[in-house]
Amino acid sequence: MVGAMAKVVEQIEDEDLVLRARTQADALGRLYELYYERIFRFCVYRLFNKEIAEDVTSTVFLQVARGIRSFKGQSQQDFRNWLYVIAANQANAYIRKTSRRKKLLAEAARSMRTFESSEEAPRAGLAETLRGYLETKAETPDHCNAEVL
Length: 149
Description:
Blueprint: H1 2-20, H2 25-47, H3 50-67, H4 76-117, H5 124-139
Helix pairs in contact: 2-3, 2-4, 3-4, 4-5
């Protein structure tokens, strides 16, 4: 009986935590502590890479911190749903971004092969160097590549 009562009290406090997180940093910090590991595991499951999942999980909680004041939910379940939607969207955005990057690099490598076979072959040394770079970049896992702006 005492265990059940403690669980009810904890659940009431958790429900209150979501409402308090809108205005109190310590309540938001507590939600972070409660959900970080779950969201991290979700991101690992989606992205198959712990380092990338850590980055995406951080992005998720930054977005939560920015949007918590406008969060309309009232319950812990509403918060959980919102949090997982953000996590899924961030994971999908990462997948789209890396997919586009790989396609562009592969396209650039194909263009370089076409360039090498054209009549502008005297510049082939530069083209060979660039093609090698692009092929290596396309084959390297994304978490090993530095972001180039």
